[in-house]
Specification:
Blueprint (H helix, E strand, L loop, with lengths): L8 H11 L4 H12 L3 H9 L12 H9 L6 H4 L4 H11 L4 H8 L19 H12 L6 E3 L11 H8 L2 H4 L11 H18 L3 E2 L6 H15 L7 E5 L4 H14 L2 E5 L13 E8 L10 H9 L3 E6 L17 E5 L15 E5 L11 E6 L5 E6 L5 H4 L12 H39 L3 E2 L7 E5 L3 H10 L2 E7 L2 E5 L6 H10 L7 H7 L25 H4 L3 H12 L22 H4 L5 H4 L11 H18 L3 E3 L5 H18 L7 E5 L5 H8 L3 E5 L9 H10 L4 E7 L11 H10 L3 E5 L12 H4 L3 E3 L20 E3 L38 H34 L4 E2 L12 E4 L2 H6 L3 H10 L6 E2 L7 E3 L7 H22 L17 H4 L10 H5 L19 H6 L13
Parallel strand pairs: 1-13, 3-4, 3-5, 5-6, 6-7, 16-17, 16-18, 18-19, 19-20
Antiparallel strand pairs: 2-8, 7-8, 9-10, 11-12, 12-14, 13-14, 15-21, 20-21, 22-23, 23-25, 24-25
Helix pairs in contact: 1-2, 1-3, 1-4, 6-30, 7-30, 8-30, 9-16, 9-21, 11-16, 11-21, 12-13, 16-19, 24-30, 25-26, 27-28, 30-33
The structure holds pyridoxal-5'-phosphate.
Pyridoxal-5'-phosphate binds next to helix 25.
Pfam family, one: GDC-P
Function: The glycine cleavage system catalyzes the degradation of glycine.
EC number: 1.4.4.2
Length: 1027
């Protein structure tokens, strides 16, 4: 504790700032006070523990304020470097203060004039949770039987705690480095096996964003597999879920496809002739009917189209799978497999198809290959299909794709196994039969011809039924004045069923006799048409029969987790991915029932807590980006790009400029940029970068001028994907505006901007944010993603709408269609971002950006003598990330970037981003959350690897057999009887002393990519492989 006389004025001011009441006015005062501090002092104040002493000039109010100050302040927990480290790091870079460093990094012309203000923020951690709990409690947790693709679930607690709430699972990165990702790769392969088994279709992926966008992906596969461009009509049955139809309609626009909505039973398909690319139906349909689509499949195939079935995954355990009745593609949501409702997401969608369509499957596919020792190893198959390779030729822009939720769904199937899943499905159906009988006995009409779990009930007065349900805190589906929908789920109890029966005026006392009369399984039920009960086995692979006790399950989850390097193990310095801290306080609220158990279509009056939080977020994100309006609907950054470009196109159409259809994209852009542009119906024109990595302004201007009549937009990433704050950005924006185009800013690198500059301040018209990068939502092994877009006022009317987003008079809130199935996308994880912003406030987030830049430059500076840094500004500074040019080693030693990446695994690190944006280089982004010790360890490792390369260059190790090309080294390898290499086992596994305390063992040796792609296996290998 400091003595009275040592308390600095800075500390007193900072404390006072922290303790002022939290209104926007006071936060301005607090900002103003802190602004008078030199950054170095402000940092000290922000990280200093609360002191109880006071200078003699302090008033008693100040002293009292200090006495009450909470100690669990957040900024010092979020940022890695300690105060003393910041000083040392700045000194190493030759700066006296953080502000001096920022001045040398960020062009003065784009700096914000005033500090970023976030009202009602800078809470301590406990305070934050109390504040958010109060907001959460404005949500009313009703029992929702609304269905429409979302149901309540029983999340097995062993999965809830050990996956959803476990940083060992939620902080992993997309498994691009298979040797340190075998755990989640195995789990995602289990997911694919669940999907292929249940749908009866052999090719699948892991995973997609939601059912609506999965329908969009299916549309594109149908269009692309048609030989003629004129085959561009797609039929959609009117009884698909409304949100699926709405997202499909949106998707079709960019491809110039026509969606024909009708009743598949009466529609004259021959009227579409050879224009029919495909047909979408729902199984069961949105009102519960289980239809027989065998004849439809023949009709659609006869006309040369493909049959797409949006299926309910749970029902497929007991109903004939789509693959057995002629479907070419099956899509749907896996939420029902143990993932909370979360007000609409995040949930993983599935996509399964025939072998003929295998190479057209969008997104990430997990495959089976072998490692250098010949052992089985899992990997992302067909990695070259990723958009950053295929770019404008990509047929989908899917990148981040709800992997964590796919893991949950897979584990749900592993835990319950085939019999357990069938029991759940049959139980749901049995309850539904009892409800149907009760309702009919009460004199009402069940309109369904067949059903699995959903009834469409005709009633004299639907409003009266809803009122009675409301009294029991029950939500039913509102269909019309005389029709009500009910969907049952695995969480249903006898008591709840009794409430439902009572709501419909049924006889509760008859329940038990009806229960004994109900068929115990779908296969014996009259409610399912002849021939549609499932005959084929499900989940036959042993993995689904091994882990049914909680002890076994816990060990399986833990065993897989141990194979994966996550942030719980070490830094994951992936350029362009911002793998920062996902703080526990930020994550805790997502499993509160007030957030987790809300149906996306629950009435507005029950979702006031979400409304409050989303309003806050929309306002705060607009402030952060310098924009006027925000939507949180997109489920990933790429989905945000697509939504933003559509907003631009809709705006231009409203100005009579529909002819604007060209999008300029720099050659350095992330592959999702051109892919999204194509999806939005734009033609891509590539703009060059100069030798220093900057946008080539002359080329930009020439192309903007050449295409001025058709120029729609430019997509710019800032700081650039090369990791530099380019000086020319303002001129680039000016050029585009001059030629009538709009500026889309990709916000993947926003972590370097917050509080220093902003897309809106620079003049961009629209930008997305990757909340799973900048704003602390965990990557979860490849999703949940949230990609809000923020726009200037003129684009606000063109943000995506949704069938559920209506004005008071019932008219749509936006004339532009939705990009996601749920109105607020992955709303269930928005509390993470809300908490991040409210914990840090504008001041804290600005400090975060400065620290991110400091960490990157500190590392670049340490590595400069050993590797060349590809791009920096005129002061030699990078932004929040930098590229190490490893191409030179190819000639000098035969070493490629991939060898360095694999060797880093031996040093206990996740390799940085590889081969993008520049082939055969590596891009490092440490983030602000890493401590100086961790940065130093990584630099030590990289320097040691450079020395290892030198040994090859000097002939001390051969080009063919050396410590890099043999990396990573597994336990099996270093403990084998035989050792034939020129270097020792000790050097292979423990090259630096820190590894004695912290060794992470890759669980397989280097994985053979080519073999995996040639021998594509996308579900769990057959039984004999396990014997
Ligand atoms: C620069 C850039 N833009 C866009 C994206 C796509 O974002 P998402 O993966 O959230 O779809 C990424 C993803 O890494 C990126 O780095």
């Amino acid at each position: 504790m400091l003595s009275r006389s040592t308390v600095s004025k800075a500390q007193v001011l900072a404390k006072l700032g922290q303790l002022l009441p939290r209104s926007s006015g006071s936060s301005m005062v607090r900002g103003a006070l802190l602004h008078t501090l030199k950054p170095r002092q402000a940092n000290a104040a922000a990280t200093a523990p609360a002191e109880t002493g006071s200078a003699s000039s302090e008033s008693s109010g100040d002293i009292a304020a200090q006495a009450y100050a909470p100690l669990d302040t957040f900024l010092r927990r979020h940022n890695g470097p300690r105060d003393s480290d910041v000083g040392a790091m700045l000194q190493a870079l030759g700066f006296a203060s953080l502000d001096e460093m920022v001045a040398a990094t960020v062009p003065a012309s784009i700096r914000l004039a005033a500090p970023l203000e976030i009202s009602d923020s800078e809470f301590a951690e406990k305070e934050l949770l109390a504040k958010l709990k109060a907001i959460a409690q404005k949500n009313q947790v009703y029992r929702s039987f609304i269905g429409t693709g979302y149901t309540d679930v029983v999340v097995p607690p062993v999965i809830l705690r050990n996956i959803l709430e476990n940083p060992g699972w939620y902080t992993q990165y997309t498994p691009y480095q298979p040797e340190i990702s075998q755990g989640r790769l195995e789990s995602l392969l289990n997911f694919q096996t669940v999907i292929t088994d249940l749908t009866g279709l052999p090719a699948t992926n892991a995973s997609l964003l939601d059912e609506g966008s999965a329908a969009g992906e299916a549309l594109v596969v149908c269009l692309n597999s048609a030989r003629k461009k004129t085959r561009n009509a797609f039929f959609a049955d009117r009884n698909c879920h409304p949100q699926t139809l709405a997202v499909l309609q949106t998707r079709a626009e960019g491809f110039g496809a026509e969606i024909v909505v009708g009743d598949y039973k009466t529609f004259d398909f021959s009227s579409l002739g050879d224009r029919l690319a495909g047909a979408l139906v729902s199984y069961p349909d949105t009102y519960g009917n289980v239809n027989d689509f065998r004849a439809l499949a023949d009709t659609v195939h006869g006309l040369g189209g493909q049959l797409v079935v949006a299926a309910d995954l749970m029902s497929l355990a007991v109903l004939q799978p789509p693959g057995e009745f002629g479907a070419d593609i099956a899509i749907g949501n896996t939420q029902r497999f143990g993932v909370p409702l979360g007000y609409g997401g995040p949930h993983a969608a599935f996509f399964a198809t025939t072998a003929a369509n295998q190479r057209r499957v969008p997104g990430r596919i997990i495959g089976v290959s072998r490692d250098a020792a010949g052992n089985r190893a899992y990997r992302l198959a067909l990695q070259t299909r990723e958009q950053h390779i295929r770019r404008e030729k990509a047929s989908s822009n899917i990148c981040t794709a709800q992997a964590l939720l796919a893991n949950m769904a897979a584990m749900y199937a592993v835990y319950h196994g085939p019999a357990g899943i069938r029991d759940i499905a049959n139980r749901i159906h049995r309850f539904t039969q009892i409800l149907a009988s009760s309702v009919v006995r009460a004199g009402l009409v069940v309109e369904n011809e067949s059903y699995f779990d959903t009834l469409r009930i005709r009633v004299p007065d639907a409003a009266a039924i809803h009122a009675r349900a409301n009294e029991r805190r029950i939500n039913l589906r509102r269909i019309d004045a005389h029709t009500v929908g009910v969907t049952l789920d695995e969480a249903i109890t006898r008591e709840e069923l009794a409430h439902l029966v009572d709501v419909f005026g049924g006889d509760v006392s008859a329940l038990d006799s009806l229960a004994s009369a109900a068929a115990p399984s779908v296969s014996q039920s009259a409610a399912v048409p002849e021939g549609l009960a499932r005959q084929s086995a499900i989940l036959t692979h042993p993995v689904f029969s091994r882990y049914h006790s909680e002890t076994e399950m816990l060990r399986y989850i833990t065993q897989l987790q141990g194979k994966d390097l996550s942030l719980a193990n070490a830094m994951i310095p992936l350029g362009s991915c911002t793998m920062k801290l996902n703080a526990t306080t930020e994550l805790i609220p997502i499993t509160w029932p007030e957030f987790g158990s809300i149906h996306p279509f629950a009435p507005r009056e029950q979702t006031q807590g979400y409304a409050h939080m989303i309003d806050d977020l929309e306002r705060d994100l607009a402030a952060i980006t310098g924009m006027a309006a925000t939507t949180v609907q997109p489920n990933s950054g790429a989905q945000g790009e697509y939504a933003g470009l559509r907003a631009i196109r809709a705006y231009q159409a409203s100005q009579g400029e529909s002819n604007r259809d060209i999008c300029l994209v720099p050659e350095s852009a992330h592959g999702t940029n051109p892919a999204s542009a194509v999806m939005a119906g734009l033609s891509v024109v590539i703009v060059k970068c100069d030798a220093k990595g900057n946008l080539d302004l002359a080329d930009l201007e020439a192309k903007a001028a050449k295409h001025s009549a058709r120029l729609s937009a430019v997509m710019i990433t800032y700081p650039s994907t090369f990791g530099v704050f380019e000086d020319g950005v303002l001129r680039a924006i000016e050029i585009i505006h001059q030629y009538g185009g709009q500026v889309y800013m990709d916000g993947a690198n926003m972590n370097a901007q917050v509080g220093l500059t902003s897309p809106g301040h620079m003049g961009a018209d629209v930008c997305h944010l990757n909340n799973h990068k900048t704003l602390a939502i965990p990557h979860g092994g490849g999703g949940p993603g949230v990609g809000p877009i923020c726009v200037k006022a003129h684009l606000a009317p063109f943000l995506p709408g949704h069938p559920e987003l209506v004005k008071a008079d019932g008219s749509p809130q936006s004339t532009v269609g939705p990009v996601s199935a749920a109105p607020y996308g992955s709303a269930g994880v928005l509390p993470v971002t809300w908490s991040y912003i409210k914990l840090l406030g504008g001041r804290g987030m600005t400090q975060v950006s400065k620290t991110a830049i400091l960490n990157a430059n500190y590392m670049a500076n340490r590595l400069r003598d050993h590797y060349s840094i590809l791009f920096t500004n005129e002061n030699g500074m990078c932004a929040h990330e930098f590229i190490l040019d490893t191409r030179v080693f190819s000639k000098s030693s035969g070493i490629q970037a991939i060898d360095i990446a694999k060797r880093l695994q031996d040093y206990g690190f996740h390799p940085p981003t590889m081969s993008w944006p520049v082939p055969n280089t590596i891009m490092v982004e440490p983030t602000e959350s890493e401590s100086k010790e961790e940065l130093d360890k990584f630099c030590d490792a990289m320097i040691a690897i450079r020395e290892e390369i030198r040994e090859i260059e000097e002939g001390k190790q051969s080009r063919e057999d050396n410590i890099l090309v043999n990396a990573p080294h597994t336990i099996a390898k270093v403990s084998a009887e035989e050792w034939t290499h020129a270097y020792s086992r000790q050097r292979a596994a423990y090259p630096l002393p820190y590894l004695r305390d912290r060794k992470f063992w890759p669980s397989v040796a280097r994985v053979d990519d080519a073999y995996g792609d040639l021998n594509l296996i996308c579900s769990c290998p057959p039984l004999e492989n396990y014997q």
